[in-house]
Design brief:
four-stranded mixed beta sheet; two-stranded parallel sheet; alpha/beta; Putative glutathione S-transferase; Glutaredoxin; Glutathione_S-Trfase; binds glutathione
Length: about 350
């Protein structure tokens, strides 16, 4: 396997539990910066670096597109396979990102802090200040909220409000449970190295999915009548569920496609511009199955499942509309974001 040596690092601590490390840089990009740690929302100034494989980065790709910020913030897409220096730009000509001039995202972390820039690893999503090449933030939950709230002056007409004031408390509450049990829950199950830790994560995950199933039986979206941050955050895990988490991470009480409301909800979002058109199952499967070699030592990428994302969902019958009364859909994507060539045999 010439593309990557795989990854033999331990993901769990001595108790057998997966521990997420948290963001290294938490500066914010805001409409009106008022002090240290705040950068101006200025079109053309920043580059958003993502892997299409990564569920946390995927959120920012969706929100950038929903907000119509493509011309304001450029997008760099990494190779789904990291090497020993982590995320790299090997899909680009000469293996160099054409805007940043870097071969590895690590260089932006080190441009920001040469001593300790990479102490929490090198993670996506990351926003880089193009002129200095320095990392501004890798704080993924704040990134999506700020793309929605702080870039208003540069958003497209008809951009939805994903975090309306009057719904924030409820969105935050839903997000909290979804983060621990679902978004991060699948990692806790998949990276556990003790049976009990795995079983705890599995139980919490499916208890939460059962509760979401019930919630979504009578409402089209998680909070309110339109898409919000809560839907974006749940969607990126659901999009990977049957392809990766139910097999590779052993989250296999049932597939997403064996739920009722939750599966119809996921298809509804998938068919909403900005969601399904940013899902790339090639990037997703190759990353998980070829990088996490402690779980999949052969690095074989499974061909299935043949999930039918485009079938009718009938969720319109519940009322609600994706983009809100004044909102409109973003224009269709003209081509897939970054198709990959055949798997290196
Ligand atoms: N590291 C972030 C979340 C983003 C994240 O975990 N991204 C993954 C890809 S899905 C990554 O870049 N991992 C490499 C690393 O952490 O070194 C956090 O927990 O604050």
């Amino acid at each position: 396997m010439s593309t990557t040596a795989g990854n033999t690092k331990a993901y769990a601590d001595s108790s057998g539990s997966f521990k997420r490390r948290g963001p290294r840089f938490t500066d914010r990009i805001v409409a009106n910066p008022s002090g240290e740690g705040e950068w101006p929302a200025e079109p053309g100034r920043y580059r958003l670096v993502v892997s299409l494989a990564c569920p946390w980065a995927h959120r920012s790709v969706i929100v950038r597109r929903l907000m119509g910020l493509e011309d304001a913030i450029s997008l760099a897409i990494t190779d789904p396979l990291q090497d020993d220096r982590s995320w790299r730009f090997s899909l680009d000509e000469g293996g160099v990102d054409p805007v940043l001039g870097y071969t590895h995202l690590e260089q932006a972390y080190l441009a920001r802090d040469p001593e300790d820039g990479t102490e929490n690893g090198v993670s996506v999503p990351a926003i880089v200040d193009v002129a200095s090449g320095a990392l501004v933030t890798n704080d993924y939950p704040q990134i999506t909220v700020d793309l929605g709230q702080e870039w208003r002056a540069h958003q497209r007409a008809g951009a939805p409000d994903l975090y309306p004031e009057h719904l924030r408390a409820e969105i935050d509450e839903v997000n909290e449970g979804v983060f621990h049990d679902v978004n991060n829950g699948v990692y806790k199950a998949g990276f556990a190295t003790k049976q009990t830790r795995y079983e705890e994560a599995y139980a919490a995950l499916f208890a939460r999915l059962d509760a979401l199933e019930e919630r979504l039986e009578s409402r089209r979206y998680l909070v309110g009548d339109h898409i919000t941050e809560a839907d974006v955050r749940l969607f990126t895990t659901l999009a990977r569920f049957d392809a990766v988490y139910q097999g590779h991470f052993k989250c296999n009480r049932q597939k997403l496609a064996e739920f009722g409301a939750l599966w119809a909800y996921a298809r509804d979002l998938y068919q909403t511009p900005g969601f399904g058109d940013t899902v790339d199952l090639d990037h997703i499967k190759r990353h998980y199955y070829q990088v996490q070699t402690t779980i999949n030592p052969t690095q074989i990428v499974p061909l299935g499942p043949l999930t039918a994302w485009d079938t009718p969902h009938h969720r319109e019958e519940l009322g609600g509309s994706p983009f809100g009364p004044e909102g409109t859909a973003p224009a269709p994507l003209e081509h897939p974001l970054r198709p990959l060539g055949p798997i290196d045999m």
